[in-house]
Design brief:
The chain is of the alpha+beta class. The chain has 4 domains: 10-99, Rossmann fold, CATH 3.40.50.20; 128-183, 2-Layer Sandwich (Dna Ligase, domain 1), CATH 3.30.1490.20; 187-208 and 222-309, ATP-grasp fold, B domain (D-amino Acid Aminotransferase, Chain A, domain 1, 2-Layer Sandwich), CATH 3.30.470; 312-398, ATP-grasp fold, B domain (D-amino Acid Aminotransferase, Chain A, domain 1). It contains 11 helices and 19 strands. It is globular, with a radius of gyration of 21 Å.
Length: 398
């Protein structure tokens, strides 16, 4: 790697300025940094914390590299989004600046098919995969795009008659044009947020992903801590998966499902911070500032302090959803933020945003982070705050 001379203050290029990047951008703004954020959305909420903003897609690798060179950045980071993880790693290599993973590792971290191959070679327990023409495909099964995150291109297929359409949808969403067919592990979904330092894996929070009830005030309790399940096997499965991908430094976000046999099946590993305010939850729960650690990794600063001081008995992040229509106003936000146990309420969308019926990640209206004496107390506090926030919308013209 070529020697890189750091400018003063250091310049950090953050790929993305949406809801998933808010926590890291806020943490970066609190440091003595020149924060350059890129996003194709001129109304991206994270721009409020950036020193400079660039209206380009975080997935436009050539444009990102041109910007990084022109601004002589000291580090790049992609928090909360998968595909730009590889862009950040490759551009960092080209520029000779520090980065926690190299380009080859980033390929494994951003392509599910490559992960499956590596997990299989390492003996990591994972859902069984099938070719699209395999007569032994079990139903229900899951069909997904191998290089997308979230719900894009993902279908739960209940019978063979729906398989072809699901494969077509996944292929259409895939950057590489393929589809991944795998067995459904129909059990609780857990997430392990961890950090690796010089090959030493340290699990921090193990959270449950729960559906909100009623859905009138939330899409999903994406993270509830501590997990209600036995986590020793979950942590060991995450450790094995991260090590199988060759990730020795940096933050990781591992999704797993518990099977009916009680074992933890690794769904995927991301070499990044979670996009659902996982880092902020970790800080509220354990006093470990994952956002700050991730920034230090991106800049090549020393990262050796993982001292924990449990701050709460329970914590959760609850996403908010608005009714369909064009947003006119969000009311009672300040009142919700002042409620007992509420750490913050974040609203992602500005007036004029049109909410659709799909209720996927792009339609999230905001989120609440709450802590409590235990997980149920934290959940109850988040729900009360969510019921207080009011999204006033105008019906979409027919």
């Amino acid at each position: 790697m070529a020697e890189h001379r750091r400018s003063q203050p250091a310049r950090l290029l953050v790929l993305g300025a949406g809801a998933a990047q808010l926590g890291l951008l806020e943490a970066a703004a609190a440091r003595d940094l020149n924060v350059i954020a890129v996003d194709r959305d001129p109304l991206a909420p994270g721009f409020a914390f950036a020193t400079e903003r660039a209206l380009i897609s975080s997935e436009d690798e050539q444009a990102v590299e041109r910007l990084a060179r022109a601004r002589s950045v000291d580090g790049l980071i992609s928090p909360g989004a998968d595909w730009p993880v590889g862009i950040a790693a490759r551009v960092a290599e080209h520029l000779g600046v520090p980065h926690p993973i190299d380009g080859a590792t980033a390929v494994l971290a951003t392509t599910k098919t490559r992960q499956r191959e590596r997990f299989g070679a390492a003996g990591v327990l994972q859902p069984q995969t099938f070719s699209v023409t395999d007569p032994d495909v079990p139903f229900p099964c899951v069909v997904k795009a191998p290089d997308r995150q979230g719900q894009r291109g993902l279908t739960l297929v209940h019978e063979r008659s729906g398989l072809a359409a699901a494969v077509e949808a996944a292929t259409a969403e895939s950057r590489g044009g393929g589809a991944l067919v795998e067995e459904l592990i129909d059990g609780p979904e857990l997430t392990v947020n961890a950090v690796s330092m010089n090959g030493v894996f340290s699990a921090l929070t193990v959270t449950d992903r729960l559906l909100a009830d009623p859905p009138a005030f939330g899409v999903a309790l994406a993270h509830s801590w501590p997990s209600a399940h036995e986590t020793e096997g979950v942590i060991e499965a995450a450790r094995a998966a991260v090590e199988a991908l060759g990730i020795t430094n940096g933050t990781t976000y591992t999704q797993l499902r518990l099977g009916s046999d009680g074992r933890a099946y690794v769904v995927e590993v991301a070499a990044r911070l979670g996009g659902g305010h996982d880092a902020e939850l970790c800080n509220a729960a354990l006093g470990v500032d994952l956002n700050d650690l991730a920034i230090s990794f991106a800049l090549g600063d020393p990262c050796d302090d993982l001292s924990q001081a449990e701050r709460a008995g329970g914590a959760c992040v609850l996403f908010l959803v608005a009714p369909e229509g064009v947003l006119r106003e969000v009311a009672e936000v300040e009142e919700a933020g002042e409620m007992d146990g509420v750490e913050w309420v974040r609203i992602y969308r500005q007036p004029g945003w049109e909410f659709g019926p799909l209720r996927r990640g792009a339609d999230r209206a905001g989120a609440i982070l709450a802590t409590g004496a235990d997980r149920e107390d934290a959940l109850a506090r988040a729900r009360r705050a969510a019921e207080t926030v009011r999204f006033l919308v105008d019906a979409t013209p027919a």
